[in-house]
Amino acid sequence: MLYALRKSLIAAGILTALAIPSVQAVTPDELFEVLQRVESLENEVRFLRGENEQLRYDMEDMNKTQRSTFIRIDDRMDELFRAINSRVSSSSVPALDAAPVSVTSSAVSVAPVAAKPVVAEKKVAPVAKPVVAKAAPAVVQQPVKLPVVAAAGRVPAQEQSAYDAAFAKVKTQPAVSIALFRDFLKTYPSSSLAANAQYWLGEVMYGSRNYQGAIDEFVAVLQSYQNSPKAPDAAIKLGFSFYEMKNWVYARRTFEDVIRNFPSTNAAVLAEARLDKMKSANLY
User: Fold this and answer.
1) What is the DSSP string of 47-85?
2) CA-CA distance, 143 to 145, in Å (whole number)?
3) What angle separates helix 194-207 from helix 231-244, to the nearest 10 degrees?
4) Of 254, 169, 172, 171, which Cα lies nearest the Cα of 181?
5) C-alpha pair distances (Å), 131 with each of 25, 113, 119, 140, 141
6) Tens digits of per-residue pLDDT, 16-31?
7) Helix (H, G, I), strand (E, B) or coil at 9
8) pTM score, whole prediction
9) I need a surface site. Which of 2, 83, 107, 258 has the fewest CB within 10 A?
């Protein structure tokens, strides 16, 4: 193509030179000027060809970088999916076994308390009835008070204040919010609000359309806080992030894992709806 262009330019210059004698005789200076113009056009063509080769090289380099990035994402997601499936299956079994154990232990502890008034009732029949009536409410009140005390004061005021300060900047100053949430996680890594802080890092990234950053943060939630109430939300937003990046394979896999690992949740409902949308659009 460049050769043809060069050839046509030279031909145009020659035709111009040949056309000159119809008006006046061609002088050496005029012919030299025509040749200079042709040479100038040739230089421009060479320059454009060099730019074209540079652009092609840059495009190839960018494609290689993008491919390597997706390969790293694939490797990380494979590890994450294996971890989710193994941890959920292992953690769900003790959780189901733990409930009957706690109930039976509480029942055993209550049984001796109920037995003592029965013995007292045999010795002093009239006094036994009031004692049983007073003891019964005491046994019922103890389990009710303990959870309330445990829930109260779980988050110290200093931690809550730091978390609230970061959360307040989510919409107005996302960059500041990210910095504050990261500081919170460094300062209070064992806080009961750590899972929430990690989740909102992903949310801020997602809202800023930094989907790669959002994927990293949501994966961190599922890796470090899998038993947190924020785990289903992080999983569905992870799928949405893959969807926005048009990585249909991992979007589908993530939505399917949400339905399998977090059933009966709002995240599972959203995952089913997005899978239906993908199917109707022939994305898988």
Assistant:
1) HHHHHHHHHHHHHHHHHHHHHHHHHHHHHHHHHHHHHHH
2) 6
3) 20
4) 169
5) 136, 11, 11, 15, 16
6) 555 544 445 668 777 7
7) helix
8) 0.52
9) 107
* Torsion angle (degrees, nearest 10) of CA 173, 176, 182, 185: -70
What secondary structure does DSSP assign to 127-143, as a single string? HHHHHHHHHHHHHHHHH
User: Each residue of 127-178: pLDDT tens digit?
Assistant: 444 444 444 444 333 333 333 333 445 789 999 999 999 999 999 999 999 9
| Token pair belonging to 151 | 């829930």
Closest CA to 207 of 164, 241, 162: 241
Residue type, 19: A
DSSP per position, 102-121: HHHHHHHHHHHHHHHHHHHH
Tokens of residue 183, six digits: 């500081």
| Location of structure tokens 């652009």 | 55
As a whole number of Å, the end-to-end CA separation of the chain is 41
Tokens of 225: 């806080």
| Cα 218 to Cα 199: distance, rounded to the nearest angstrom | 6
Question: Residue length, the chain?
Answer: 284
